[in-house]
Amino acid sequence: MTIQVKQKAVNKDMQEEMVGVLTAISIVSKRLANRLSQLNEQNEMKGEKANEQNQTRS
C-alpha cells in the first residue's frame, strides 16, 4: 500500500512540474509573439518612410 501512495505522490509532483513547464513555455511564447509584432510594426513604418522619401525624390 505504501508503494501506491508513493507513486501517487510522484505522479502528482510530475504533473505539477509539467504544469509549471508548460506555463513557462506559454509566457515565453507570448513575449516572443509580442516582440515579433513590434518588429513587424517597426519594419512597416520604416518601409513607409522609405516609400515617402522615394516619392519626394522622384
Task: Describe the fold and architecture.
The chain is an all-alpha fold and 58 residues long. It contains one helix and no strands. The mean pLDDT is 86.
First-last Cα distance: 85 Å
What average pLDDT do the residues reach? 86
Quick one: how many beta strands? 0
Radius of gyration: 25 Å
Q: What is the helix tally?
A: 1
What spatial form do the alpha-carbon principal axes imply?
Answer: rod-shaped
Q: Give the low-pLDDT segments.
A: none
Oligomer: single chain
Question: Could you write a compact summary of the structure shown?
Answer:
The chain has 58 residues and is an all-alpha fold. The chain has one helix spanning 2-57. The protein starts with a helix and ends with a helix.
Describe the secondary-structure layout.
Blueprint (H helix, E strand, L loop, with lengths): L1 H56 L1
Characteristics:
single chain, 58 residues, mainly alpha, 97% helix
